[in-house]
Design brief:
CATH class: Alpha Beta
Shape: globular
Helix content: 10-25%
Number of helices: 3
CATH architecture: Alpha-Beta Complex
């Protein structure tokens, strides 16, 4: 199964859009910090369209093909309690911060400064209960929330790409 997410970047200061998924029964990612996105729909021409559609649905943000900067490496779920899925992250660069209107699937949406994610104390090992067993996972702490799993890996890849392109 394939899904796509939008890694939406804005300037002044440079920031990325993160959402906290609403608590919903039957949703394996319920309450998690995430990037806007979701599973590829039958009517989606490709995964880029999926990322754009899901972002519009989840936070009311209309992305345009001209905003697309590229994509990051695909990530796959590695947690046995989650469904097997591959996610393609698409990076979109906007010239300003647009208003966000979260739908019922999203409890909150916020812009997180990229500089914040680069602080050593923000990136750490977090002990989480996953499927009834404690596990130590790499994570970011953002406004007292833990960003882990596929979202952590996508953000880590993004930060590495941005740092390598600035040198």
């Amino acid at each position: 199964m394939w899904a796509a997410v939008a890694v939406v970047l804005v300037p002044s200061p440079d920031a990325v859009l993160l959402i906290r998924r609403a608590d919903r029964a039957g949703d394996p990612w319920s309450g998690h910090m995430a990037l806007p996105g979701g599973r590829r729909g039958a009517g989606d021409a490709d995964l880029r369209v999926t990322a754009m559609r899901e972002t519009r649905e989840e936070v009311g943000l209309v992305l345009h093909r001209a905003d697309l900067a590229g994509s990051l490496d695909d990530v796959v779920s590695r947690t046995p309690v989650l469904p097997p899925i591959a996610v393609r992250p698409y990076v979109f660069c906007l010239s300003e911060r647009p208003p966000l209107t979260p739908n019922v699937e999203v409890a909150a949406a916020s812009w997180v400064a990229l500089d914040h994610l680069l602080h050593p104390e923000i990136y750490h090992s977090a002990r989480l209960d996953i499927g009834g067993a404690p596990r130590d996972v790499p994570a970011y702490t953002v406004a007292e929330a833990i960003v882990w799993g596929m979202t952590e890996r996508i953000l880590t890849n993004l930060l590495a790409e941005l740092q390598s392109s600035s040198t």
